[in-house]
Amino acid sequence: MRPLLLLICLLPTWLLADDYGYPLHNPFEATIAGTPVALRPALPDEQSISQRDYSLNLRPERANRLPANFWPVRRLRYRLASQPGPAPLIFIIAGTGAHYASSTPEYLKRLFYGAGFHVVQLSSPTSYDFMVAASPNATPGFSPDDARDLYRVMQTIQARHRDLPVSAWHLTGYSLGGLQAAFVSHLDEQQQSFNFQRVLLLNPPVNLYTSVSNLDRLVQTRVQGIDDQTSYFQVVLQKITRYFSEKGHVDLNAAMLYDFQRSGERLTDEQLAMLIGTVFRFSAADIAFTSDLINQRGLITPPRLPINDSTRLTEYFKRALLCDFDCYLSEQLIPSWRALHDGGSLAQLIEQASLYALSEYLGNSRKVAVMHNADDPILGPGDLGYLRRTFGSRLTVYPYGGHCGNLDYRVNAADMLEFFHAP
């Protein structure tokens, strides 16, 4: 194929930089700050949404084995926003470690509810509440198992709200939730509880191991001004303090960060990268600690350690923070996968847990689409090429936005709604 003809064939799936008005061209800034308020879509306010939180008792056998201070998560909670009459329903799967009511699921709820959808918000299978209250194995990271856990939850919700008038079923997820949405959609082709009409993957990992390795490496970024006497957080705090002293008031929000990054105190790329990596490391530590505790593996907490409200967990948390994703993978996930699925090598696990395992299905399923960013730090070499070959015209790539930073940009919001409203 001639180069010019090839370029023309690719144009429908790529939004050129000159045509895209998202203002943050630094992927780390975009990942942290999101979209300036003036560029977000108009959304319904919370008071106008008919919504309620519910809970499911899915793992009653754990009631006597969990520490007393785990009582808030012994039941799996979720949020349902319902329309007054018949409407399509969309499930939203949260990203790594995220709770169903965290900021991104809440934004997506308002977006889809305002467009006439019933909306169900689900916590990530990597969140401690889902691990405790919904997962039989409580060792997330193997996508087929995570999808089965999610699907059981969805089926239970469907049965509980059987009187809700649903005209069609849809599914979306962002970040790791996007990868899991692909596996849930494939599972539904076999079980057909929902027969999803549309499935949208937002900024999903292609190779799960590549993505988590990219994020883990951000913690190791060398930052100027940080040594044994001056911590990263001291440097950042000093910059923010000077910034607010000049402004004369304190206002912590996304717009502040956007303005802050245009001031003389702006964080460097290395400092932003380390901030993103630190957030991910906290999520990984949470996963490692919770999985070890529930399964009583004794890797982080002694198996029969009595934990209650007065137990000092600082030392165990420090131990968990030292365990990056490779540590969790080798000490907990791989042994569990081998025991449950007669698994073999790390390469086999990576293949089975990543989008590669669904290549044929995703290449042929017209209802599944992807929206991603060319500068997303979770992507590795060749990932966009894989998505392009697999999804073709069902792939939309934005030039900027980092990792999920532009989900609340009005252009992206309009594209999402257009996809779900398409015949």
From TrEMBL:
Q: Gene3D superfamilies of this UniProt entry?
A: alpha/beta hydrolase
Q: What is this protein called?
A: Serine/threonine protein kinase
Q: Where is the signal peptide?
A: none
Fetch the PANTHER family from UniProt. Answer: AB HYDROLASE-1 DOMAIN-CONTAINING PROTEIN, LIPOPROTEIN VACJ-RELATED
The domain of life is: Bacteria
Q: Which InterPro entries does the entry mention?
A: AB_hydrolase_fold, MlaA
Instruction: Give the source species.
Output: Pseudomonas fluvialis
